[in-house]
Amino acid sequence: MERHDHLVAAPAAPPVMQETVDMTSFVGRSELLGTAKTLMTSARLVTLIGAGGVGKTRLLDRLARECANQTGTPHFKHGVAVARLGDIKSTDDRLDTTIAEALGILHNASSPIRTRLVEHLRHKQLLLLLDNCEQLVGDEPGTGPLPDLLRTLLSASPALRIVVTSQTKLGVRGEHLLPVPPLCTGVEESCDPAERGTVHEAQRLLLDRAQEIGVRIPRDHYALVSTLCELLGGLPLAIELAAGKLDIMTLQEMVEQHNLLHVLVGGSSEQRRHRTLRSTLDWSYNLLTPDEKHMFMLTSVFDGGFDLHAATAVAAAHDVDQADVLGRLATLVRKSLLLTEQRNGRTRYRMLPIIRHYGRELINESEHGQSLLQSHADYFEALLQRGADEWLSDAEVEWMRTLRADLANILTAQDYLARAPGQSGRARQMAINAKRTRFLHFAGLLNTADRMFVAAPADTDEAVSAQQVTALSLTAWIALTQGNPARAKTLLVRAEDAARELGISDSFPPLLLARGSWLFFAEPDAQRASEAVGVLQRAVALFHEAGSSGDVFMAQLFLTMATALLGEGAAAFHEVARLAKLVEGSSPEWSMSWVLWAGALADVLHGDPHAAFRSAQEALQIQRRIGDTWGPVWSVWLIAVIAATVGQSEHAGQLFGAANTLQGHSQTNILGMTSLLRVQDQAQRRCRLDLGDDDLEFPIALGESLPICEALDLAQREPLPRPRKQTGRQRPGGLSERQWHVAQLVAQGMTNHEIGEVLHISKRTAEVHVGKILSKLDFATRVEIATWVSSARPPVR
User: How many CB atoms lie within 10 A of CB 639?
Assistant: First the structure.
């Protein structure tokens, strides 16, 4: 009788697991292993379900070994048996026999083997593990030879537990699915942002397997390790194959491979000992029906995921009835060729990168491949156009989230159009519409917006067009909001030249928006202030005539900011009112946050700073709720300015520090805009007069040390009012007002922690103040401060 892995066949005795040792380390999966053990206590049939190469077999073997050793698992007194079913086809009659052999059943009688199986298992408390079962399930769940057999065995054997690995669910009543996902790479939606940059499961696997062949990867190459693991989608088989080639290729060379799948599918005899990645993918593909194969190729065109609308649109262009799309997607999900995820209440589908590469090879080999790529580009071009046209409505946040989720598809579509003959203008229009929707601002990806314009240059023989002027104007505007006035100026000059050639230099609203923004952001003086306001007013009017409500809002927002920064109070509040009127009757949350922000700017410069506090904090609250990554930087900075204006110098200092951190994190450069730098300089001068020249640096440093979430929480905290400094009054020993207050609390015997609670500052800030006092007074101990305060304090009258 043939001997099977992990098993010694023995009639009339429980199956015994061979004492085998893992030849390679078992990386990750501890939580998944624990979940499987827990499931087995209540579920009689558990299916470890996942894509080919995801590590289901390795997990099954580990589970079998721990159950055989009774390591924190249910006790199976009649043993644990493993049967490998990968070589059995649905048309074979070897299924029952293979399982019987795995159980050590001798079959010399003429009775059917299934009868013998049932009799053998009827009273057994046994765990049966079946590997590679997907080909034994029919086109519909619950059909096929394996589901039929398992229903018979489970109904006849009440103590039997079965665990199987499959790319599709079996459809047997009582089946519990346990999805086996790829290894964590650190970029998943579920990944804790605080843990990003650490070594996750996928990276650990690559490092371990590389070390096994004598390749030690230094820590300064871990970024490349992460990139490679992301390219491989965390798929364990792909990672192991990649690691096995690191003795002949560097990480950099592997990451730069245009077709990584081809690099991985060859291999040594050791790799061929089990199914290679190519064989695994071929196996999965060949299990599909012709219609399913067609749908698989269609969905391979998407990059980074897609939703039902996108799939339906592309499929409809390739002879798939709309009514059939959802069912075929469900089949691909069931067979683990597609994954699903929920984002903002909507279902999205995605392929692991390696599976998508396989599908793209099918597209490239197909006579319909170019047509499919064109359909994909057509859909996402139209999606961006709709987003731009439907701006400034209740759906604007949903639009930003949708477009952000489809960014990879948008870039792929634009790249196709940029390279396709005669379609470069469409590629450029995609860049324009991406800017008009503001979704890249929302996502904190202004560099991507810039790259989209670069990716769609004008043809050398193309005549100057209004579209080119728009592209140059918007690129200049992006550079300006990035705090790069030099590049903005160069692009603006090019846009002006092209516009003059077309005779539209004074009547083209995108150019006027860029020109007006430049005038007040980069070169603010008395003369240019008036010019900037006039240019932006004309841009607003022309956008309004064109019926472009979203563009009207952006032009009005910058007009409002320009008026607040460079004009009089009455004019500033008039423009704030006009901006607010644009959002009346709807609830565009992103736009509303900027209405509040602009109102706060006008209030702090020309009106009630306390009202400005409320508006700016409400703007920040909205931005955090909707997931905006760009706006909060501006709101924290503005709240710092407001805090300085109302005399909350300590609080303002920490917020300025927090704003510095946020600007660095998001690569936003507010202070690259001269007019805003002047506002900050004036605010910080107030703080230095209040705290002392040196003392502002401490709260700034403390704010810079805060984690992002704490920095945002600090900005939303209501600062407690405190008495303003009494001018003309000198404190003993040259101490600042705050230092004198701290010295008095030291004299009362308070610790740094207690001082912090009294003054609403951190313990670290209190410690810094005490250190400054000791230095100024040339003292060594707190006792000396207390003695000195008693003698320096004015007598009580």
Answer: 31
Would you give the distance in Å from CA 717 to the centre of its chain? 27
First-to-final CA distance of the chain: 108
Query: Per the structure block, which two tokens stand in for 167?
Result: 């790319």
The tokens for 153 are: 């065995």
Residues 610-624 pLDDT 10s = 999 999 999 999 999
Contact 103, 149 (CB under 8 A): no
CB 603 within 8 Å of CB 615: yes
Q: With 50 as the cut, is the pLDDT of residue 191 above it?
A: no
629 to 618, 626, 642, 652: CA distances (angstroms): 16, 9, 21, 22
Residue of 795 and 26 predicted with greater confidence? 26
- Indicate the helix (H) or strand (E) that contains 131: strand 127-131
Gap between the Cα atoms of 794 and 723, Å rounded = 19
H-run or E-run covering 670: none
For 459, left (φ over 0), alpha (ψ -120 to 50), or beta?
beta
Helix count and strand count (H, E) for the chain:
39, 9
CB 638 within 8 A of CB 671: no
**Reduced to 3 DSSP states, what percent helix, strand and coil does the chain have, rounded to the nearest 5?**
60, 5, 35
CB atoms within 10 A of CB 710: 13
Phi-psi domain of 468 (left: phi exceeds 0; alpha: psi -120 through 50; beta: other):
alpha
| Spatial CA neighbour of 49 closest among 235, 142, 177 | 177
Decide if 550 contacts 436 (C-beta within 8 A).
yes
Q: What is the DSSP letter of 568?
A: -
Q: Kindly report the pTM of this predicted structure.
A: 0.74
Q: Kindly give, in sequence order, each residue whose CB lies less than 8 Å from that of residue 630, ignoring residues fewer than 6 positions away.
A: 441, 442, 443, 444, 446, 666, 668
Question: According to the model, what pLDDT value does residue 373 have?
Answer: 96
Instruction: State the DSSP H helix or E strand holding residue 24, giving kind and residue range, or none if neither.
Output: none
Whether the CB-CB separation of 168 and 336 falls below 8 Å is answered with: yes
Residue burial 760-777, b: 16+ Cβ < 10 Å; e: rest: ebbeebbbbbbebbbebb
Q: Of 374, 233, 360, 383, which is closest to residue 307 (Cα–Cα)?
A: 383
Per-residue pLDDT tens over the stretch 99-150: 988 888 876 666 788 998 998 999 889 999 999 899 899 888 889 999 999 9
Question: Which stretch of DSSP H or E encloses residue 656?
Answer: helix 649-666
Whether the Cβ atoms of residue 82 and residue 129 lie closer than 8 Å to each other: yes
* Rounded Cα gap, residues 258 and 237, in angstroms: 19
pLDDT for 759 beyond 80: no
What average pLDDT does the segment 699-714 reach?
88
